[in-house]
Amino acid sequence: MKENFLWGGASAANQYEGGWQENGRGIANTDVMTKGTKDTPRGVTYRLPDGTEHQTGGIMINDLPFDAEIKVLDGYDYPSHRAVDFYNHYKEDIALFAELGFKVYRMSISWTRIFPTGLEDEPNEAGLKFYDDIFDELLKYGIEPMVTLHHFEVPLELTNKWGAWADRRTIKCFMNYCEVVFKRFEKKVKYWITFNEINNIFFGFLSSGLRSSDIQATMQAAHHQFLASAMAVKLGHEINSDFQIGCMLAASRCTVYPQTCKPIDVYEAWQQSSRQYFFSDVQCRGYYPNYQIKYFERNGIKIDMHKDDKKILEQGTVDFISLSYYRSMINSSGDIEENSKDPLQLGEINPYLVATEWGISIDPIGFRITLNNLYDRYQLPLMVVENGIGAIDKVEDDGTIHDEYRIDFFRNHIKEMRAAIQIDGVNVMGYTSWAPIDIVSAGTGEMRKRYGFIYVDMDDNGNGSLKRIKKDSFYWYQKVVASNGEFL
Ligand code: P53
């Protein structure tokens, strides 16, 4: 591996920080999402003008009445409010990351710490100071921060006012926020990521604060995110030409295998992955690909494009591609267009692979294929910013945690990444695990779905001491980093 390969770990503010109202932080979409399980979806709480209070049956809220006010209500449990309290534990946690040997730490800034409603003219100084302290702490150990500007978090005010990203005005609010953080942290942060898993905009409320999961509204919102991302790339480079600014793709969704070798299955699998590559095509090439323009035409989807939009997209192509990879998929049988509309449908289980307790098919070879596909398609450096396994861990009586299933997962995936780099010649800048420490699950809001090398004593109901405990995988990953990927 290259000498400067960026080994590290990754997290997101709303799943990790807690301190949801500390120092003037505003309320975000993620703060009104209740807890779910593998089988029951998370809900969104709201109040109707008649004063009645409700919770949606999922994070797709297309059934929500127009005059519903989405808000935090008494009597509901919202995991983001406490998360695992990085807010008060950041020194301890960063010291553990340093012990793991991290070269890079991927994190996100919570937009509402900086602009509580998204609409203020002036930023919240206390929020900026919080991130100054975190960056200083990282840099003290020589850990390079990599910052996601938008990780599934949007000021709730923008959602209630105009459906957040569904409305073009959100771009301006986002740009104000970007300008403030780019300038403030210019000397401390070099690596930036615009939108986390931009192709998961189909998660609607969860990823982008959308009030409607209608395909037309969703694709228009995607257009606004493309513009905002491109404008952020341009602005960032103007502020500091050393900035490296990337996009972020949920690459698991691109890795779609045909169910059989029937040509129609191959065709459908290819169609499904095209629906996903569309997002990186726009961000890496700077224009809408023909196949997607045709797809929009066929489905009666009309993107409201302003005169300068084409130029904005052209001028804001990314410096690198970051990606998450958890699994591969197989094409679901049936109508292609219908399937592409169901965002939480992860497809059927691949009979040749073993799945996790949450139904995620473990596929290290798929990782190698994915890295090759992305690099071939764009010839841009890749940064793996999420890869990991959610599992239930057991603390033994003596306080140890033997998570060999997690070590196996990482060993097999890092092996395939190494093959992609050394055998296939793919340019990979670095690798950050999801997540180095147990945090709240985005999909379910659970704690028991653990990803960390570091255990956090906290259960699904928010009970626990928050004590941090090193799992067996901690010592293993430490050796991987120290040997630059030689020891696996
Ligand atoms: P969790 C699925 C559902 C929600 C978010 O997921 C997701 C995915 C997988 O693509 O995306 C990323 O916590 C996301 C992270 C998230 C991670 O996957 O549901 O960028 O925020 O935690 C893992 O197990």
TrEMBL record:
SUPFAM superfamilies: (Trans)glycosidases. GO terms for molecular function: beta-glucosidase activity. Signal peptide: none annotated. GO terms for biological process: carbohydrate catabolic process. Coiled coil: none annotated. Pfam families: Glyco_hydro_1. GO terms for cellular component: cytosol. Keywords: Glycosidase, Hydrolase. Belongs to the glycosyl hydrolase 1 family. This is 6-phospho-beta-glucosidase. It comes from Trichococcus patagoniensis.
